[in-house]
Amino acid sequence: QKEVEQDPGPLSVPEGAIVSLNCTYSNSAFQYFMWYRQYSRKGPELLMYTYSSGNKEDGRFTAQVDKSSKYISLFIRDSQPSDSATYLCAMSPNILTGGGNKLTFGTGTQLKVEL
Amino acid sequence: DGGITQSPKYLFRKEGQNVTLSCEQNLNHDAMYWYRQDPGQGLRLIYYSQIVNDFQKGDIAEGYSVSREKKESFPLTVTSAQKNPTAFYLCASSMRRDGFYEQYFGPGTRLTVT
């Protein structure tokens, strides 16, 4: 079983829809949870990150972490065609408590927002 | 402009040939990484280096080699021993951000071996 599981999609939604992207994980040591966005034929870039449980909002994007269920989500409101990309979750232990400098990535979910 | 450059963007080789992928960063980051990305498999770590003249194997190091002679540069050699070398290769560097290391990625090199 992989440490991080993510549905690869593809996920196709109409413009303006609310999108929910999810990952599950098995390693209780993970404390930081990231979402990277990767456009076609480009490198991933960090979209947002969350520490431990809770929600974090940035414009149309909301990241949510439920550590008790080992489940993280990224919500995109009012989705736009420019949001079409692959979204990868990534996780890391806290370096202050012994975590290293490697990230564990999900496989990525391919999202297409159609006009 | 700070960032990571990878060259070339597309690379074609014949089976049995070694090939070296370039990765340069001017972000002054200590750590650098190489990943391979295949459809449906996400990012798989090949090698990483935390400091000059030191590097460690990742999850899929067989058939690959690296060097880290300069802080700015972390080239990856795909050897003829790598059974399935055709893939998208991503280089990254990282800096500490709060309690984790944020990774910054280059634009990638798509290698095709026939």
Structure class of chain A: mainly beta
Structural class of chain B: mainly beta
Strand content bin of chain B: over 45%
CATH superfamily of chain A: Immunoglobulins
Largest sheet of chain B: 7 strands, mixed
DSSP E strands of chain B, number: 11
Give the total of beta strands of chain A: 11
What's the Cα radius of gyration of chain B? 13 Å
Largest interface: pair, residues per side: A-B, 27 and 27 residues
Question: How many structurally independent domains of chain A?
Answer: 1
Q: From the 3D coordinates, which CATH architecture of chain A would you assign?
A: Sandwich
The rough form of chain A would be described as globular
Give the fraction of residues assigned to helices of chain A.
Answer: under 10%
* Termini separation of chain B: 36 Å
Mean pLDDT of chain A, to the nearest integer, reads: 94
Q: What keywords describe this structure?
A:
heterodimer; A: 115 residues; Immunoglobulin-like; six-stranded mixed β-sheet; five-stranded antiparallel β-sheet; 11 strands; B: 114 residues; mainly beta
Task: Please explain how this structure is put together.
The complex is a heterodimer of chains A (115) and B (114). With 115 residues, chain A is mostly beta strands. Chain A has strands at residues 4-6, 11-14, 19-25, 30-38, 45-51, 54-58, 61-66, 71-76, 85-93, 104-105, 109-114. In chain A, strand 7 and strand 8 form a beta hairpin. Chain A starts with a strand and ends with a strand. Chain B has 114 residues and is mainly beta. The interface between A and B is medium-sized, with 27 and 27 residues.
